[in-house]
Specification:
Blueprint lengths: L26 E5 L5 H13 L15 E5 L10 H4 L2 E4 L6 E4 L1 H7 L3 H8 L6 H7 L2 E3 L13 E3 L1 H4 L8
Parallel strand pairs: 1-2, 1-6, 2-5
Antiparallel strand pairs: 3-4
Helix pairs in contact: 1-4
């Protein structure tokens, strides 16, 4: 077996893949007061997937944990709060069910945000694992203060992230 003389491999220019033992997860905290759902979901999904890191690899879980507080003050733009439809199927014939964010908000205030983030993550095992890194809480208190989460100010990222009242 001969090695081709015109191919040279330089270890300095090779892509370095991160091992599972080298992955470090950070914690971030976001205050969702007057935040627009779709814009907040895109920011959260990028952090959960790990796209904000330079070690991002699509097939690995490099993501960080995100704690969202004050979820009861989240906003939809336009008339989406009353008119947007979420569909699910029970698995039985004719079992299609629909609901609106307004009805979801009465039962579970954070479910609309969770659905938005879930649909921005990959389907399958990796996406389900990454979705567990999202922690949603009503009110300003949460049990993850011992992790010292870094606060992300949505209004400083873009002024459109916060709904105009």
């Amino acid at each position: 077996m001969t090695i081709l003389p015109f191919i040279s491999i330089n270890p300095a220019t090779m892509t370095k893949f991160v091992k599972n033992s080298e992955i470090q997860s950070n914690w971030y905290e976001i205050d969702a007061k007057n935040a627009v759902v779709g814009r907040l979901a895109t920011i959260i999904s990028k952090i959960i997937r790990g796209k904000n890191k330079n070690t991002y690899t699509p097939h690995m879980d490099h993501g960080d944990f995100v704690v969202v507080k004050n979820i009861e003050h989240i906003k939809f733009t336009g008339k989406k709060f009353q008119n947007k439809k979420y569909y699910r199927h029970t698995g039985y014939p004719g079992g299609i069910k629909e609901t609106t964010p307004e009805k979801l908000y009465e039962k579970k205030p954070g479910e609309a945000l969770k659905l938005a983030v879930k649909r921005m993550l990959p389907g399958g095992v990796l996406g389900r694992k990454q979705l567990t890194k999202l922690k949603i809480y009503s009110g300003s208190d949460h049990p993850h203060s011992s992790q010292n989460p870094k606060l992300i100010d949505l209004s400083k990222l873009n002024s459109k992230n916060i709904a105009r009242i």
